[in-house]
Amino acid sequence: MPLRLPDRLPAIELLKKENIFVMDNSRATTQDIRPLKIVILNLMPLKITTETDLVRLLSNTPLQLEINFMKLKSHTPKNTPIEHMMMFYKDFDTLAKEKFDGMIITGAPVETMNFEDVEYWDEISRIFAWARNHVTSTMYICWAAQAGLYYHYGIPKYPLPKKMFGIFRQYPLDPQLPIFRGFDDMFYMPQSRHTEIHREDILANKDLTLISESKDSGVSIVMARNGREFFVTGHLEYAPYTLDKEYKRDMGKRDDVEMPVNYYRDDNPANPPLVTWRAHANLLFSNWINYYVYQETPYDINKIE
Length: 305
Description:
Blueprint: E1 3-5, H1 10-16, E2 22-24, H2 25-28, E3 36-41, H3 47-58, E4 65-71, H4 82-88, E5 89-91, H5 92-95, E6 100-105, H6 121-134, E7 135-141, H7 143-153, E8 158-172, E9 187-196, H8 199-203, E10 208-214, E11 218-224, E12 229-232, H9 242-250, H10 278-294
Parallel strand pairs: 1-2, 1-4, 3-4, 3-6, 4-5, 6-7, 7-12
Antiparallel strand pairs: 8-9, 8-10, 10-11, 11-12
Helix pairs in contact: 1-3
């Protein structure tokens, strides 16, 4: 799929090396079609890495997507050059005037804090509310999934006795849902979190549908509003070495760091990762774009409500 990205975005050159077809805005303007407008609120510390991970997955359908990046006014990232943020990201207050076919809200390294104690909670709450009638379908990932479930539906999070870290087998509970089109009876999902949501809380809320879970890592995907909202507790977007970098970054700096489970070949961190989640990651994002964004969004984007 031709992805329409901001000119000179670092992900363009990185993905071209992987033979993924992307185009910058200059070329895209010569095509006489309406691209789907996707906005990404990137809360992860390493912005360029997350941009590349998500763009890679969004490249797998024949539809043209116009990618926009949103940032918060109430938080200044410490691990991304300010020049990059100024060139490629827009404040919520600027993008709030527009409507979008799809939205992705990433995780953030604040999960051990109470939601209301996060410095940008007020602003992100406004974004959650705004998305309800400005976006056709929104995908919340990891911390954003917990935060979105809490804000919209009052679902609490709970601390884990130890970090949920590694690759875990997941089971679709309704394989006939379009989001699982082409899925096997089980799939794998990377997890990296210190908190969880409980299936009993999801099942007790009539507005929520638990659509995938794991015997080991618990709730994995929750759907609401007939697919206008998806809450994904893990990181299907992760590149092969992301957990490895996280493990080696924290090893020796924290006393609760354990080797990611089901990740390294032969469970030996001297070996490379065994990648088991990439095919289903591509399927999930393609199915979301096709069945819950493209086939549901109005041609006149201003009619989204």
